[in-house]
Amino acid sequence: MSMFSTGILVLTSPLHTLPLRIAPVLSSAAQVVERTLYVHLHPGLNLGVGGGQPRPVFIPPVVDLSSLITGLYSNAANVCGHLDVRVLLTNVRAQPNNASSPETGGTGVACNPFPSPQPLSHSPEVVLTDFALQDPGQSPLVAQCLQRYTGYCYVCTPGLASVLLHPQLQKLEEEVEKEGQKDDWDSRSERMETYSEVVVGGTFDRLHGAHKTLLNISCLLANKRFLIGVCDQELLKKKVLKELIEPYALRVQRLHEFLQDVKPSLQYEIVPLSDPFGPSVIDAQLQCIVVSEETRRGGEAVNKKRLENGLPGLVLHEIQLLKDAHHTEMEEEKISSSSLRSRLLGTLLTDPENKSHLPLVPYVIGLTGSSGSGKSSIAQQLEAMGAVRIDSDQLGHETYQPGEVAYNRVLEEFGSDLINEDKTINRRALGRKVFGNKERLKALTDIVWPEIAVLVKERIQQAREEGKQVCVVDAAVLLEAGWTDIVHEVWVAVIPEEEAVSRITARDGVSQEDAVRRLQSQWPNTQQVEQANVVLCTLWEPEITQKQVRKAWDLLQKRIQQSREGAKPPS
User: Fold this and answer.
1) Residue among 41, 45, 30, 39 nearest 8 (CA)
2) DSSP-based three-state secondary structure for 356
3) Where in this chain does the record put each Cytidyltransferase-like domain (predicted)?
4) Please, is 356 exposed, middle or buried when counting C-beta atoms within 10 Å of its C-beta (0-12, 13-18, 19+)?
5) CA 284, CA 550: separation in Å to the nearest integer?
């Protein structure tokens, strides 16, 4: 079967049976669509022969629909986590009070949710459905009917393909037939209370199923305006692996795209949050805040502030957390951005630059990180796996030895009073001369760093002559010194500053103030990660670091194999 980048799944099964069908239907859809899967809900839609060409209608927001959306995103995370699933709500709206109004055609249910086809961020190339065929011979006619229906609702790619999914649900269908086909929207379907203006807050990093559930249900609840506060700056400082959080502008862009797809009729307002409350405690128009069991206390704190400000409290609408079926022992049980960030450790975050001037053998990794980051322990693990370790700190010591080029230049620049009795340079005294003086420090590094680079290149050449396959250049100043042109990839070890300070004071016997000053003299983690191909973190137990390094090494071997196969001339 052909694969399509973007598809739209039209769900037609009765609302009360959909929760049981959704996992196999999504699993089948994942065999056809590989990137974005839109979901359009129209329970009870008849695509069969004899019913005429069906048209979309408005369906009311009911509690069962909210539960279905939660289950849909939960199942999607379990069975097709690689897909960007988006539940569309353009055709979901509370019924007008006047059942005989022209808008409803006198039926009590509004019947024109799509005056013109809705454009989506990604144009569907294929439409799929769970519609159950009574007669396989009807398949071409049903497919044609489905294509026309979808084209009436959404702007699709010309030549829209169609696929009728056939999950193995005969047993389920028999059970449904026994209890009878009840009306999806009868009196037993509890209507949701909706509100003119709704607010939520969050980090919204790497938009995942739990975020989408929160946003979709908020869109169900909102009739007019939806206010979204996005954590920025101060609120990110305590986040796990904050260096891997997407930039604010990118998070906002992805939020806006998702929301415009889901319910374009709403007025969206996305604002940065520099404190836990933002506009939720001063905006008099807001009526409802959507929370989870985890953030309910935050919602209660918002209401306390609102009352202090003379504003009415907000309705707290609580949604359930989504369980992460794939979480590891170091990850949260719920679907969370921090777990997704931890899974990025050891993987290739950005493709390496084309370094055609570098031979492919040995493949050279530049490993860097701030003081206390654990990069040297990572380098030792890579060495144990077969890499040649090149310790630039050790090579730096060599450049200060009598007879080396840097030796004479340092004495010329900083004075012969630095000479010890054994003719070596007193590096402590040298450090005092450059400490706190950027110009003098630059004068020193301009002398020493190029000489270290020469020694690094010599060690790489030696490894090449010995037939070694991988070298790891362990260098704290890799990025500052501009050595990225002598390595194929940059790997960065990160650690929270407070943990780094604790390690430095314990290891080197210096004060916390000295440790902080040392870290502040180096590139911050965020700046280093911006240039990283691979990121690692030694915050947790050694066994977890070892798993990261092993993953990074195994993926590296695959990349090396692919790059060498790509470099071979055609036979």
Assistant:
1) 39
2) coil
3) 199-342
4) exposed
5) 54
SS3 227: strand
Q: What digits encode the pLDDT tens for the residues 178-196?
A: 444 444 444 457 889 999 9
Full-model pTM: 0.88
pLDDT score at 31: 93
Q: 456 Cβ partners below 8 Å, 6+ apart?
A: 390, 392, 395, 473, 475, 483, 486
Of 211, 194, 210, the closest CA to residue 288 belongs to: 194
Do residues 504 and 460 lie in contact, with contact meaning Cβ atoms separated by under 8 Å? no
Cis peptide, bond prior to residue 496, ω within 30 of zero? no
Residues β-bridged to residue 202: 230
Q: Which helix (H) or strand (E) holds 44?
A: none
**Spatial contact of 36 and 122, defined as CB atoms under 8 Å apart:** yes
Residue 255: what pLDDT? 98
Residue pair 45/54 in contact (Cβ under 8 Å)? The answer is yes
pLDDT, tens digit, 9 for 90 and up, residues 446-481? 999 999 999 999 999 999 999 999 999 999 999 999
pLDDT of residue 569: 56
| Angle at CA of residue 151, ends 148 and 154, nearest 5° | 150
Report CA 538 to chain centroid distance, whole Å: 21
Tell me, what's the pLDDT at 433?
84
Buried b or exposed e, range 364-398, using 16+ CB within 10 angstroms? bbbbbbbbbbbbbebbbbbbebebbbbbbeebbee
What's the pLDDT at 420?
85
Cα 6 to chain center, whole Å?
A: 19
Give the sheet arrangement for strand 363-369, strand by strand: 388-391, 470-474, 363-369, 489-494, 534-537
Instruction: Quote the pLDDT of residue 345.
Output: 97
**Predicted pLDDT of residue 568:** 63
DSSP state letters, 473-508: EE-TTTTTTTGGGG-SEEEEEE--HHHHHHHHHHHH
Q: Which residues of the chain have pLDDT under 50?
A: 97-110, 167-187, 571
Report the DSSP beta bridge partners of residue 197. 225
Outline where DSSP puts E strands in 379-496.
388-391, 470-474, 489-494
User: C-alpha angle with apex 243: 239 to 275, nearest 5 degrees?
Assistant: 40
The predicted pLDDT at position 104 comes to 46
Four-residue CA torsion sign, 302, 308, 311, 313: positive
Question: What pLDDT does residue 180 have?
Answer: 46
- H/E stretch holding 315: strand 315-319
> 3-class SS at 425?
strand
Tokens matching residue 209 = 């199923």
Three-state secondary structure call for residue 181: coil
Q: What is the 3-state secondary structure (H, E, C) of 231-266?
A: ECHHHHCCCCCHHHCCCHHHHHHHHHHHHHHHCCCC
Provide the β-strand partners of residue 471. 364, 388
